[in-house]
Amino acid sequence: MAFYGVELSSRLLLGTARYPSPAVLGEAVKASGAEVVTVSVRRESGAGRAGQAFWSFVQETGLRVLPNTAGCHTVKEAVTTAHMARELFDTKWIKLEVIRDDDTLQPDIFGLVEAARVLSEDGFEVFPYTTEDLVVADRLVEAGCRVLMPWGAPIGSARGLNNVYGLRALRAHFPDIPLVVDAGLGVPSHASAAMELGYDAVLLNTAVAEAGDPVAMARAFALAIEAGRLAYAAQPMEPRDMAVPSTPTFGKAALGD
Amino acid sequence: MRIFVNGDQREIEPESLAVALSALGYGGKKIATAVNGRFVAAAARPALKLAEGDKIEVVAPMQGG
After folding, report:
1. pLDDT digit string (tens) for chain A, length 257 residues
2. A208: closest CA among A8, A4, A9, A30?
3. Residue A111: how many CB atoms within 10 A of its CB?
4. Are the beta carbons of A18 and B38 separated by less than 8 Å?
5. ipTM above threshold 0.90
6. Which of A44, A94, A220, B41 has its CA 20 to 30 A from that of A228?
7. Catalytic annotation on A95?
8. Taking CB atoms and an 8 Å cutoff, what residues of chain B touch A25?
9. Which of B6, B42, B59 is opposite residue A41, by nearest beta carbon?
């Protein structure tokens, strides 16, 4: 699997927020096997040290980072944040979020497409956080995106895949674009289901960070993602309405009257 | 001269963004900046003269999802 020409063996991208402690975050990252972690940028005072400490942590992991534009509500905010992130993290990758609705954190798909176009033209490699809308996805590809990240459900909701039909249609429509389910997953079976649909990867944060044991949950998700991918590659059988005996009927002893 | 740094009002001498950041304690830190909503690259900070009422945003790496 490759994002913008970068080959990765792990299909789990892990967020770094909301962990009980930096130590647990570090252990969870290791247990997940993730090669990419998402990061952000936030205000820091002249006396503040939080950002510098986090930067040291990121450097120590040696992992590739995917900065986000979380919390941005306009194209201007998102574009400026992306520029700041590019300089801070020295990467062209940007997880583009342009949020419209604060209850669902549903993206403003009009602003998203516009920001994706502006950033792609400026040399960014954009990972748009979007809905499963097929036409929006098409517009994002037209704008220059070579990865798409539809939500499974609203961020942090742990609801799983709200629209399996829509996600499946997206996969069928874009066979050559890496697709990542980003947001809304709660348990490993959700991630496995996404992988069984043929999705290339899964991006997680809250489901791991807010589990009772984030390290164990990171490992559980990693296993589920691997299992789901194997199952997809193994071509699952089609569901059917009627029962079909698995034990052959031929040769059964005739024991009736 | 009155400016705003991450929303807080500050009084500084008229100077460049680079000098102001150093005076505000950001010297040597891993930061990125914007002035009045526009990104200002590190290389452009010495040449950018601040003006009365400028709104400076200073951000650092942070955890994110």
Report:
1. 999 999 999 999 999 999 999 999 999 999 999 999 999 999 999 898 899 999 999 999 999 999 999 999 999 999 999 999 999 999 999 999 999 999 999 999 999 999 999 999 999 999 999 999 999 999 999 999 999 999 999 999 999 999 999 999 999 999 999 999 999 999 999 999 999 999 999 999 999 999 999 999 999 999 999 999 999 999 999 999 999 999 998 999 999 88
2. A30
3. 20
4. no
5. yes
6. A94
7. yes
8. 63
9. B59
User: A174-203 burial string, b = 16+ CB within 10 Å, else e?
Assistant: beebbbbbbbbbbbbebbbbbbbbbbbbbb
Q: Do B30 and A52 touch (CB under 8 A)?
A: yes
Cβ A205–B65 below 8 Å, yes or no? yes
Residues near A254 by beta carbon (within 8 Å), at least 6 away in sequence? none
Q: Determine which one of A30, A76, A92, A95 is catalytic.
A: A95
> What pTM, to 2 d.p., does this model score?
0.94
Angstroms from B23 CA to nearest CA on chain A: 9
Which of B6, B39, B41 lies at the smallest CB-CB distance from A45? B6
Selection from B3, B8, B6 nearest residue B19 by Cα? B3
| Helix (H) and strand (E) counts in chain B | 1, 5
Residues of B at the A interface (Cβ-Cβ below 8 Å)? Answer: 6-7, 24-26, 29-34, 37-39, 41-42, 57-65
In CATH terms, the superfamily for domain B2-59 is Beta-grasp domain (3.10.20.30)
How many other β-carbons are positioned within 10 Å of the β-carbon of residue A235? 7
